[in-house]
């Protein structure tokens, strides 16, 4: 079997060859540096399966070129950069790997919160500038008590629930907004449910975003949401950058409606250095001191998570091709009534 790994970025796990080398041949294609780059059709035709390694880059090829492809896997959780309907029309399932970095992302969300609310990043930064004059506990502006504060979750899926559990361990009150979960979910998890984003924003001291990116969630955290924010709100986003309207967040930080933000993801990645908010942060404008933390879409990362992600992506393919067992399929609705040439007999 030939698996085409597209938009690959290092490190490549040597375990893949050790685990699957006898049954799988890998064709590795790195993220292209030339925007006009297209995969050679003969490489696409040779693929029995495709793995898109990138969370943001599209496949640099036409779907029709993958004549023999039987399954596509997004090597990660988000799959908004894959054409679900297009692959479904060809009878090809698209799957993801939703369970490789759940704990890492949840930990990162809490770490961003703590960096702001306990001042760990700010204290270190100001002490580096002057360890004598800046030896003062009031240097971090967003310090607060966690016990009794409200932690709001947008999207109570695997990662959202893991983040909620961690917040609850700090004796925080947990509320969540997720219109896709069935009635009674709040009873099973023991957290409070609200039925609108406005209510969540007005109730929460911290809002942590864990929703997928789609047409409903793009720009979800925008001007209307920030206008409803509880005074002193801190926003954390470890999901997808475009869920938060960066212009609206900038305005809300400037006028104080939002006290601070920890962002692991941005609408444009790498960061748009010319965006007013990013520019204010990199320029160390004093009004933003201790109020914003950016990390480079790294919440998912640990060496163990990378190994799991790469291994699990291959296991999803082999389970389908060898056993007919389809796991983590995200385009099932588009497979109904479509061609089935890509499915195993």
UniProtKB/TrEMBL annotation:
Keyword Ribonucleoprotein applies: no
Residue ranges of every copy of the D-isomer specific 2-hydroxyacid dehydrogenase NAD-binding domain listed in the record: 110-299
CDD domains recorded: CtBP_dh
Keyword match Oxidoreductase: yes
SUPFAM superfamilies the record matches: Formate/glycerate dehydrogenase catalytic domain-like (SSF52283), NAD(P)-binding Rossmann-fold domains (SSF51735)
Principal EC category: oxidoreductase
Cross-referenced InterPro entries: CtBP, CTBP_dehydrogenase, D-isomer_2_OHA_DH_cat_dom, D-isomer_DH_CS, D-isomer_DH_NAD-bd, NAD(P)-bd_dom_sf
Domain of life: Bacteria
Record Gene3D superfamilies: NAD(P)-binding Rossmann-like Domain
Keywords annotated in UniProt: Oxidoreductase
Any one GO molecular function term: phosphoglycerate dehydrogenase activity
Family under the similarity heading: Belongs to the D-isomer specific 2-hydroxyacid dehydrogenase family.
Listed name of the protein: D-3-phosphoglycerate dehydrogenase/C-terminal binding protein
Enzyme Commission no: 1.1.1.95
Residues covered by the D-isomer specific 2-hydroxyacid dehydrogenase catalytic domain: 41-331
Provenance organism: Kaistia geumhonensis
